[in-house]
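We give its fold:
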Amino acid sequence: MSADDLNNTPSPAWTSSDLKENPHAAGDKAGRVQKMFDAIAGRYDLNNRLHSLGRDQAWRRRTAQAAVTGPNDRILDVACGTGDLSEALANQCPASVHGIDFSRGMLDVAIAKTHSRTRRSGVPVPTYAQGNAMELDLPDASFEACTIAFGIRNVVDPAAALAEFHRVLTPGGRCLILEFSEPRNPLLRSISNIYNRRIMPFTATIISGDRSGAYRYLPRSMETFLSPAELADQIRAAGFTMDVQRPMTFGICTLSIAQKS
């Protein structure tokens, strides 16, 4: 590698030094998150499948089944990433699915999926747009359900995003938040922590060829984010009524379901 190549190597979004502190408190978190997801978009799905042993798709299917209650539902999928949840939502045959994400790289993968899938009758093609969860460029009361999977912790101000979800939902609309959590069982929690802190960052970085620090940030962002109970408090503070919180796969993640009164 030449000196010019070294000079042109992009700086990482997150360094080990950055992650000694709480990444959610970083003043430039938004730009770092955007840069990170743009960098890992190409191998993001592969890493998800391998490191969840395929469970990530099951978690999304369960979320989609809870989100869509009828054929007239309009669904908003925030932080849609590469479109896996958007596609799972579409398979439930609502009226429409619209995905929003901050990362252009992730959206490019999601859009490519819309051209490669064969759809049965009644399954809508998801539409996508780049946008900010805290400032949705969407009309009030325009969706029957809003979902966000493994994305609320990447938002700079989750309370502002929750307020936006509340705004764009119709009365009685459903807000579904799927996010990682810690298993309650002490042995399972210990195993999960070792895996997330030691094994996954190493193997995921190799598989993705990532230099952004994404797979060091992701476990650190999980352990410094709100607990399910704390997230439920923020959901209520945004004006929602909490319906239920469902732990999945021994509590590795939790689905929070709330309703706009």
About this structure: The chain has one domain: 14-260.
